[in-house]
Amino acid sequence: MRNRRTASVVALGAIATLLPALTPAVASAAAGPASPATPLAAAAATAAPLARFEHQKPRWTRCEAEGPASYECATIKVPLDYARPGGRTLDLAISRVKATSAKDRRGVLLLNPGGPGGPGLDMPVWMGPMLADDLKKRYDLIGFDPRGVGRSTPLTCDLNQQESNWQRPYKAATFTKDVQWARTVAEKCRARNGSALAHMGTRNTARDMDVIRAVLGERKISYLGYSYGTYLGAVYTQLFPKRADRFVLDSAVDPARIWRGMIQIWGEGAEPAFARWTAWAAERNATYGLGATPAQVGATFWGLVAQADRKPIELDGFPMTGDDIRLAARGLVFDVEYASQETARLKAAAEGRTPAPARRAAPSAPATPPEVPADNMDAVFWSVVCSDTRAWPKDPEQYRRDAVRDKVRYPLYGDFASNIKPCAFWSPGAEPATVVNNSVHALVLQNEWDSQTPLASGQGLRRALKGAKMVTVLGGQGHGVYGFGSCADATATSYLVTGRLPAKDLTCRTPAGQAQRSDGRTLPGIPERLPIGGTDRF
Question: Distance (Å, rounded) from C-alpha 95 to C-alpha 73?
């Protein structure tokens, strides 16, 4: 565990991507012609301008001199505002690794790692080893940095490190400062980007995906999206149901909860995970010394929180407050072994003993190109979650009341989840939230113990997608299923290769000892900047 400034980054592996700044062309995007008054007029007015985007010919070049020659990149244009396609445009960075067999090739598989704000341009490279050869024979793997992200025309709000620290516990003494922080973030984003912010939401990113489809000359796309990428994929199926081929939605967002409810479910979901952890640790009291019953383990934990509230406990050179411990534990308890190891180390430090060495090395942030501003992922995150829905309360007192209530209901994280966010002061997005309710075929994958998209969230997406089937990995822990060695891999690969969904929703259990991802671990060969596994992203 670490202090609050670094807890999600170090103790829990929440490495957020740091990407480039918004160009003046987008920051100062001027309004285009007035929107036509009727749907028929709108269609007639936009069809011709949109054709110029769909008929682009990408100029593919080798992405990196040191990378594989098969990894090719290009940049295409998309409209900032699809209602005004003759107006300003954005760059969209795309990539591909072609199918390994021309005769077996079926089409394209678009990839998204989550976020919002996660870069996906290099996914065809690092996902390759995780995918079955039979799948790679059939699909060109297509990566892209979504609008506002990375090598696409990038967004920034010029936020400093403190302004980017958004997981804040509720305290009556600091609430006024938290309100000012939220207002400052919203005002800085608005000042830097103006009306462009209203067009950074998920609906437009889904439309960008359809431009990619057209540019690549495909009638349909297949798709593999993780975490936030499940919502992006679901929105695509809602907007373009006839163009969605085989969609795998892994670690799923409940579209009925976007986005405040998806942050609040972190508090709700942590409580059963905490209970499961205390039972597991109690059975292993001889190893960890945290208590012989679940109640005793819980008392040990909350005793450490109370002690750290009086005087921070130093662990590995970081002074941990009680709030820091709660914040770190929220993600840790989904991985019962790691939570036990870290709590035992914290207990040793609290008792003045030398803690055992950490069992897992803390991940380090990847090198950031000099042109990349540190707040890109934060800027995109707020631009999406605040613009996608108009359900965010505007009265700060509503956040205060909810945080006070939820600290009692969900003591591990409830007040963090319900405390005020910049969306309270955000200007409305260009469109209302997307209602996802369709019969498009898709496969939803879900671990039973997922800190970022808990099981109830995955079940919510399954309800919304009437034509989908769901595979639940019983006992599965961690954020991300497919490609991570779970029992669901074979079902997902079979669906992508053959197109055949399971006849019904399935459950499976990964055999003991088989490799599977845990929240505290990074995956071999996978960039640590991935949002998957971070405790402050989807």
Answer: 4
pLDDT digits (tens, 9 = 90+) for 76-88: 999 999 999 999 9
Q: Which helix (H) or strand (E) holds 210?
A: helix 202-215
Residue 76 identity:
I
Strands (E), 198-330: 221-226, 244-250, 313-315, 318-320
Q: Are 54 and 174 in contact (CB under 8 A)?
A: no
Peptide bond into 166 cis (omega under 30): no
Among all chains, which residue has been given the structure tokens 């609906």? Answer: 203
Residue among 229, 237, 21 at smallest CA distance from 115: 229
In angstroms, rounded to a whole number, what is the distance separating the alpha carbons of residues 394 and 405?
A: 18
Residue 244, helix vs strand vs coil: strand
CA distance 532 to 433: 24
Give the three-class secondary structure for 311.
coil
Output the pTM of the full model. 0.90
26 confidence band (pLDDT: 50, 70, 90): very low
Residue position matching structure tokens 């997902």 = 492
C-beta of residue 421 within 8 angstroms of C-beta of residue 395:
no
How many Å apart are CA 263 and CA 268, to the nearest integer? 9
Helices (H) and strands (E) in the chain, counts: 18, 12
Helical (H) or strand (E) element with 446: strand 442-449
Do the Cβ atoms of 20 and 150 come closer than 8 Å?
A: yes
Residue type, 178: D
363 vs 296: which has the higher pLDDT: 296
Q: How far is CA 234 from the centre of its chain?
A: 14
Q: Distance between CA atoms of 509 and 507, rounded to whole angstroms?
A: 7
d(CA 434, CA 465): 13
Question: Where in the sequence numbering do the catalytic residues fall?
Answer: 227, 450, 479
